[in-house]
């Protein structure tokens, strides 16, 4: 998968920008609901105009997207998606648009995906459903989580499978705020989250983040994630309805076709993640994926990648999760990830992050709390 792989259902992306279904068409309400102030927005009168009514055909055409009204089954690329975001942010002169849009989104804006998620029996099931839907509907992002143990916090994590620069912050802001609000709605005050972490430096509008999270916000962290008590995983959701959840998921995929599961590098990464601590050889991985090692090597080359590169992507992700959980032993993580010794791991880690493990642990990759 690269920037020009057409793997994102246009029908899903339209839910980001067509918020008209769930907002009041009135300026003061919009400011109040988005938690923006007039001091935040330079073009006051265009805020409602953008969210409510720019010409959709021009909006898509400017991003190089060919789409006839009512046409279904259209897929767009990550580059085209970024062009849509670029138009929206520049039109409003609002670099923090992701925060406002995330706050405007409700469960209904996520459509059948939202219904299927919130009707799961537990919060664990809800997050697993979100993870699967993200993998299919927006493969540039990966959503996952780990449960804490030994008094460690649990986390719901959002990572990039493909760089979304220069608008990484838009997608992280939108999803983090949206899922934080869904969490608050589902638990209704019974539990609180302990933090919202972002893996990038604090942007110039960092002070605006605090309006959307009733918990500490930190930048320059190992992972972009929402953190909380591990016991939250088993929290029983008030809208639990297995039949409705199954029906909603069936309806979703009947109406929005997907291509992500056919993307070989993503399939390989998901297979490797299951082998944490004992990664398979290329030949073994190929057999599990129903092909020969030679075929896997050739198909990965056609995608512009290699088995070693995909293994490194998975190792880096698992390393960041290990450190985010409070792990500090370089020897232990090196062994878990199958390196011959800690020096080989340290060399790889510097290649991934530009830092040594000790520099990373001392704050180079895990600092920046905003109170």
Q: What would you say this structure looks like, in words?
A:
The chain is α+β, with helices and mostly antiparallel strands and 371 residues long. It folds into three domains: 87 residues, no CATH class; 127 residues, no CATH class; 108 residues, Homeodomain-like (Arc Repressor Mutant, subunit A, Orthogonal Bundle). The chain has 18 helices and eight strands. α10 links the parallel β5 and β6. α7 packs antiparallel against α11. The protein is globular.
Features:
3 domains; 6-stranded mixed beta sheet; two-stranded antiparallel ribbon; 371 residues; alpha+beta; disordered C terminus; Arc Repressor Mutant, subunit A; 51% helix
Please give the number of β-strands: 8
User: Span between N and C termini?
Assistant: 38 Å
The total of helices stands at 18
Q: Characterize the quaternary organization of these chains.
A: single chain
Rounded mean pLDDT is 83
Supply the helix-strand structural class.
Answer: alpha+beta
Mind describing the biggest β-sheet?
6 strands, mixed
Helix content: 40-55%
Question: What are the low-pLDDT stretches, counting only 5+ consecutive residues below 50?
Answer: 367-371
Q: What is the domain tally?
A: 3
**How big a fraction of the residues is strand?**
5-15%
H/E element sequence = EHHHHEHHHHEEHEHEEHHHHHHHHE
Mass-distribution shape: globular
What is Rg? 21 Å
Biggest β-sheet: strands ordered side by side in the sheet: 3-4-7-5-6-8
Quick recap:
Helices cover 51% and strands 8% of the residues. It has 18 helices and 8 strands.
């Amino acid at each position: 998968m690269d920037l020009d792989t057409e793997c994102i259902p246009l029908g899903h992306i339209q839910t980001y920008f067509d918020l008209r279904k769930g907002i009041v068409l009135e300026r003061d309400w919009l400011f109040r609901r988005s938690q923006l102030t007039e001091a935040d927005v330079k073009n006051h009168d265009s805020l409602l105009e953008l969210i409510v009514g720019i010409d959709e055909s021009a909006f898509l055409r400017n991003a190089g997207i060919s789409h006839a009204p009512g046409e279904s089954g259209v897929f767009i690329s990550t580059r085209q998606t970024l062009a849509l975001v670029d138009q929206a942010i520049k039109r409003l002169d609002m670099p923090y648009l992701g925060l406002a849009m995330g706050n405007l989104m409700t469960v209904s804006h996520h459509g059948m995906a939202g219904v299927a998620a919130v009707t799961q029996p537990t919060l664990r099931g809800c997050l697993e459903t979100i993870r699967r839907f993200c993998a299919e509907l927006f493969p540039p992002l990966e959503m996952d989580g780990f449960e804490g143990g030994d008094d460690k916090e649990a986390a719901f994590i959002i990572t990039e499978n493909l760089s979304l620069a220069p608008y990484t912050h838009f997608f992280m802001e939108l999803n983090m705020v949206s899922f934080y609000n869904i969490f608050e709605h589902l638990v209704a005050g019974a539990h609180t989250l302990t933090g919202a972490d972002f893996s990038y430096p604090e942007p110039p509008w960092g002070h605006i983040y605090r309006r959307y999270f009733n918990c500490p916000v930190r930048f320059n962290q190992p992972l972009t994630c929402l953190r909380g008590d591990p016991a939250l995983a088993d929290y029983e959701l008030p809208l639990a309805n297995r039949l409705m959840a199954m029906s909603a998921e069936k309806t979703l995929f009947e109406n929005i076709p997907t291509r992500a599961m056919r993307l070989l590098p993503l399939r390989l990464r998901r297979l490797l993640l299951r082998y944490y601590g004992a990664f398979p050889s290329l030949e073994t991985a190929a057999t599990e994926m129903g092909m020969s090692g030679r075929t896997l090597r050739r198909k990965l080359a056609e995608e512009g990648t290699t088995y070693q590169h995909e293994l490194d992507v998975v190792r880096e992700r698992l390393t960041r999760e290990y450190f985010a959980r409070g792990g500090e032993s370089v020897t232990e993580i090196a062994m878990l990830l199958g390196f011959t010794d800690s020096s080989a791991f340290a060399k790889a880690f510097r290649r991934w992050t530009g830092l040594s493990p000790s520099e990373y642990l001392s704050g180079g990759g895990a600092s920046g709390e905003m109170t």
